[in-house]
Amino acid sequence: MGRYNTNQRKALADFFKEHRDTYFSTDEIVNSLCSRGDISKSAIYRNIDKLVREGSLQKSAEEGSRKFLYRYVNDDRCGSHLHLKCLLCGSVYHMDDRQTQIVLSAAKGSSFVIDEKRTVLYGMCERCRPETGEKG
Ligand SMILES: [Zn+2]
Ligand SMILES: [Zn+2]
Q1: Is the pTM of this model over 0.70?
Q2: pLDDT score, position 1
Q3: Ligand 2 mean position, distance from CA 92 (Å)
Q4: Ligand 1 midpoint to CA 51 (Å)
Q5: CA gap 39, 89 in Å, rounded
Q6: Ligand nearest, relative to CA of residue 20
Q7: What is the Å distance from ligand 2's center to 123 Cα?
Q8: Would you call 64 helix, strand, or coil by DSSP?
């Protein structure tokens, strides 16, 4: 059994590695991978959970829905800084440590601790933002 399971899991991991810095819903993953015949739907669900537990995938709630989105964690560093996601093009930006500390320290003093591994801030990237020059 081991060999088959490992191959399916590798197909899933490879898919995420090919699309770094992109968030996917489970539907999108199923659509892409099942059409290639690499992996079954149930195996996708099973292996996503495993990869999340291992820390290879970041799981975050999609804004305004109850769906979850998954993103490949490039390296260990991605666990220690915050991420920004563009609402229009879906690009992900990695905050540097200094910016992350500013945001985290802003929440200090409240009784709430931000989980930087799961927190995604939404907005608009430079490319998608309309020109903000002077009018006229
Ligand atoms: Zn990162
Ligand atoms: Zn954008």
Answers
A1: no
A2: 45
A3: 9
A4: 17
A5: 28
A6: 1
A7: 8
A8: coil
